UniProtKB/TrEMBL annotation:
Protein's organism: Lentzea aerocolonigenes
Cross-referenced InterPro entries: DUF2855, GroES-like_sf
Name this polypeptide is given: DUF2855 domain-containing protein
Pfam families: DUF2855
Amino acid sequence: MISRWTVVVDRDDLTKTEVLHDELSPELGDCEVLLKVSHVGLTANNVTYGVIGDLIGYWKFFPVAAEGRGVIPLWGFADVVDSTVDSLPAGTRVYGYLPMSSHLVVRAKLTSSGFVDTADHRAELPAVYNGYLVTSQDAAYDPRQEDIQVLFRPLFMTSFLLADQLADNDFYGARTVVISSASSKTAFGTAQCLRGQGVRLVGLTSPRNVEFTESLGLYDTVLPYDAQVDVEPSVYLDFSGSADVRSTLHDRLGDSLVKDISIGLTQQKPSSDSRSQFFFAPEQLRKRSADWGPEGLAERFGAAWHAFTAQAGGWVGIARHSGPDELAEVWQSVLAGKANPNTADVITF
Ligand SMILES: NC(=O)c1ccc[n+]([C@@H]2O[C@H](COP(=O)([O-])OP(=O)(O)OC[C@H]3O[C@@H](n4cnc5c(N)ncnc54)[C@H](OP(=O)(O)O)[C@@H]3O)[C@@H](O)[C@H]2O)c1
């Protein structure tokens, strides 16, 4: 038997965690692959998976037999330790969506870049989360940049597609883009993609994060949340989910606020507002796959990703942790918003 640990979270109170231990049968069925999780990143994006877990179905990816509790998904690397699929032998390294658990069994269906987990409980869930890349088949993989990849890659695809959607629509007629939670990785990745495109970038952030956000050198102006923005035609990109910030901006800008787009909710208070439109990355992905072809898209994303990763290590230092107890501690810290934006957390399992 294989000893497995899993960190579970109370679905109604994300501050309550527990480390569970159980035994996993080493017997694998047809097409099954046993993965041992290697290391993962943990950011506010993972907290969102818990905050809107019921709405989007994030709790369903890694079901656990513990009433009222669930497993938060993380992005990271894992190694095949046993397999009934010839082309996925022990030692194969993969990147994808992983549980807060030492091991995961997947039912693999091969693709050109790796495999998809076809487990029954994942069949109805968004396809983007079910694919795993085999590192030896991934052109963007660089073994020296695994930490950068686990932290930024899931976020930067959104940054890239969001910036592209704005440019694709000529910024909806605006020449200023106001971005909340400007210190977050997905927000500053978007700012990096927008630089040099003829728009003024205004970052809104908490007072304590102004200095860090300015130090990135990506925004033309950085303001604390309670400061007034200039009245000029603007697009709002909301990563904070703050109803107050939204209302203040609408009151101040009026008709000059030409587009209001919701992407995140770092403040963990889901709310809907008819003035804001939800950003749905798969839609822009589909559009650009058709416009540019899958290869053209991969080439453009690859160029943007390389430009970003060349700088990202200088913006954010890595804090390393290991094991289930430290994983639970990092979860508490990111959930509480205590984490300093100049440091990002990588956990080895
Ligand atoms: N829709 C999509 O496709 C998509 C994809 C990726 C990410 N996102 C969303 O984008 C947001 C940013 O994710 P990330 O992983 O890039 O974040 P991150 O780098 O971990 O962001 C950290 C920042 O978020 C704010 N924050 C964090 N915890 C907080 C708390 N408890 N209370 C208040 N503010 C808090 C602070 O920024 P400030 O002080 O600057 O506010 C903090 O510096 C998340 O809501 C995520 O779900 C959406």
